[in-house]
Design goal:
Layout lengths: L11 E9 L5 H17 L5 E6 L12 E7 L2 H9 L1 H10 L3 E10 L1
Antiparallel strand pairs: 1-3, 1-4, 2-3
Helix pairs in contact: 1-3
Amino acid sequence: MKTENDSKKTRLRHLVLFKFNEGIDISIIREIEKRFALLKHEITLVKDLEWGTNISKEGLSNGFTHCFMLSFEDEKDRDAYIIHPKHQMFVAFIKAYLDKACVVDYWA
């Protein structure tokens, strides 16, 4: 939902949450973190990428431990990112380790 700041330049946010399989080795999680962070440098359409692990004390994460937020200029760039070969290679790599993923896009 846009706000009174609609006149300012906006960015499309692409929020990705991961819930890993039970018993996944921490070295695999670190490799996933590294590979996701590299996507910003490998795909120039990504304007910004930040990520972190859940530290909430509310107990509402439903097992999702990792959050990645990417920013794009527009939907065209986001769509091109989704089908980009580097992104597709990353998705293929993590599939075996994910219990669930959640993706939400919004304008900020």
